[in-house]
Amino acid sequence: MAPKTLRSLLAQPSSKLVPHHHHHHQSISISQSISTVRSAISHWDPHSSDSLSPSFLQATSHLHSHLLHLSASHASHHHTSHELVTIHTLLESAMQHLKESLKYHLFHISSSLDSHSDNIKAACSIAETMLSTGYGEECVSTYQSMRQSTLKSQMVRLGFDQSAHQPKFVRKLRWETLDNQIKSWRDMAPVVVQSLCSDEHRLCHQIFAASPESVPDLIFSTITCDVTLSFLTFPETVAVNLKPSPEKLFRLLDMYVVLSDLLPDIESIFGSEPASSVRSQVISSLGKLSKAIRAVISEFELAIQKDPLNSSGVPGGAIHPLTRYVMNYLAYLSDFEHSLQEILVDLPPNCNSSFFNLPNLQDESILSVTIAWILFVLLCKIDSKAETYSDVALSYLFLANNLQYIIGKVESCQLRKILGDEWVNEHNMKARRFVEGHVRSGWAHMSEMLSVENENGDVERLRMFLLAFDMAMKERKDWVIADVAMRHEVKLMVEAMLVPAYRRWYSSHKDFVSVRFSPENIKKKVERFYEDSNLSSGYGSC
Q1: Residue 503 has pLDDT above 80, yes or no
Q2: Neighbouring C-alpha atoms within 13 Å toward the C-beta of 542
């Protein structure tokens, strides 16, 4: 069955539209009603609800009923014809005055929409009277025009510029300008939906509570749909016309979260059939945003892979800027965990399970796999950059620093929950192996110089050890261990490698060879080295 138009609904008689005073008509003469209406019109004040007295409203209803009766009787008497003209003219005048009063009271309805306000009560009385006396179209037209103008003005005051949301304008905008527009839209959206549209919906159903069923929904739809659709189309316009790049991801997610959060309100406010296009638009916008977000995440992964090797020269094996950038990005991304679980529906396009070791891959969420894959890509890039160091110990230190920073970031945010214990434990063990590789390749050869089994050249071996030890202190003074706990661990491992070996050699040779440093001296030198040099500077610990 075809949906009824507003005009056809207004033309339908409805018992709800019969005013409460209708049953008093029989006790009042038609001349009394004419006199009451004329008197009210002559003293009319559109700015006051006093003009809307019960006697006036009752009289207009009486005149309308009498007019219908005369028209139905098909009487051709001259007196009857004259009476018809008189009553019709008087009703026309009364309705014109009511329309002006309706405009006034609608204009002065506050944004807070107190349902007990005099303006709302007056507007309800006027609407009920106009609809019950056959002037429903005039009433609705006035109401729609006034409220539509009010809604648009409210949105303009919020900062909404309908022309600026057109695709041709969005495509031409610099990102900085569009970024500001997105932030403005994000802040406006809850106000538009939960305040302006919600209030408009409530007011419409209140004013037209006595009208036939579906009339308030049709009126509300006419008032709000065009401007609301224009406003809610903006996220889709951005998603479709935006060139994917990593810095734009979070604005897309902002809009997705706002629309997703507002969807229950939109389904409630725009749930009727006449306004269903608004809900359909929001669903469409969420779909387009999801597609754009997936494209940007793929672009982000590609940007990591394309990071040039000539950017690998980080002094002292410190944390690489790429590592900081990716981890800060992922940490921020993890705040959108709930939304990303909805958005990410497939594994990353380049994810190769034959090289990608994630335990129980089938049991993981798409988000977990996506994050783990991006980290795998980052670690592969860090591995390739480590190969550019000529000193093996420094290469291991670079790997340890960067992996430890990655683990620290994971454990400090939602990434810990997303990736799980198994990922963290596996990479902690890997970081430990890097630390061991750094200590072994940097200090083990000095320990071997002091081997007791090596009986030849005691003095020469001591001289070589001290020379190598001092050289290491000088050459490595600018090396960096950013993590405090890792620095302490390295110090203990170096002490464990050098001091016992030196003590054994010292115990065996102190009576035969003049030895300048005791084992405690060597230990203090190691301690000071890891406390006083750049190794303890923390090099950008955030």
Answers
A1: yes
A2: 2
